[in-house]
Amino acid sequence: DVPALVEVLEGRIAAMSRAHTLLSREKWVGAELGEIVREEFAPQSGRILTQGPPVRLTAEAAQPLTLVLHELVTNALKYGALSVPEGKVTLRWERQQDKLHMQWCEEGGPPMVEPPLRRGFGTRLIDANIRGLLAGDIERDWAETGLRCTLVLGPEALAGSRFVTGLRDTSPLAGRRVIVAVENAAEARSL
Predict the structure, then answer these.
(1) CA distances from 89 to 83, 84, 108, 111 (A)
(2) What's the average pLDDT block by block, 10 residues per block, for the chain (191 residues)?
(3) Which residues, 6+ apart, have CB-to-CB distance to 71 below 8 Å?
(4) Cβ–Cβ contacts within 10 Å for residue 49, how many?
(5) How far lies 113's CA from each of 75, 83, 118, 119, 146, in Å?
(6) Strand partners, 99
(7) CA geometry: angle at 53 spanning 151 and 93, to 5°?
(8) Which of 20, 52, 75, 147 has the fewest CB atoms below 10 angstroms from its CB?
(9) pTM of this prediction exceeds 0.70
């Protein structure tokens, strides 16, 4: 179905565009989780409740997390709590040590009889981003009342964590502080 495919791709491109706009405003040094959530959930405001402390993400984590949130909302609109007028979603997050724990809870949607029989591209995209680029994990509970997800983002995704992006443990600089001064952002990204 070409029109449906175009709509899905446009949605993903729009999500990436929102992340790029936010990162551009922040000079590509990171992004506040609350801003990412507000941008991504704006069309569904009032139906998605959010709660959590300020958490700063690295620039590298902002885009994959935006895609994950976009896919969760899209799936909730198609099949879950947001597919019916009385449905709602709650997203809560908290930092635990050097990781970020997020709870996605759908309520009031069509009753879940069993988990989906197949994993669509959106679900595979969520898993790949969480487990790969965000160095975390995801657990799904297909409760009768709606989908409940626990998403964990690893320290690599959090700005200010002890993990130093780009350095491997075998590097002679591992564990040391390094300051690099450059004149422009394009030059800094190529380092």
Answers:
(1) 11, 12, 9, 14
(2) 66 66 67 89 89 93 92 92 95 94 96 81 90 94 92 91 47 56 56 51
(3) 122, 123, 125, 126
(4) 13
(5) 16, 16, 14, 16, 10
(6) 96
(7) 15
(8) 20
(9) yes
Residue whose structure tokens are 């706009």: 21
Return the number of other C-beta atoms located less than 10 Å from residue 18's C-beta: 20
Taking residue 161's Cβ as centre, other Cβ atoms within 10 Å add up to 19
For 144, the token pair is 């009768």
Q: Tell which residue, 128, 172, 136, 140, has the closest CA to residue 154.
A: 136
Identify the residue whose tokens are 């970020």: 100
143 sits in which H/E element:
strand 137-143
Q: What DSSP string runs through 52-71?
A: ----EEPHHHHHHHHHHHHH
- pLDDT, residue 138, reads 96
- Can you give the pLDDT at residue 164? 44
Helix (H, G, I), strand (E, B) or coil at 191: coil
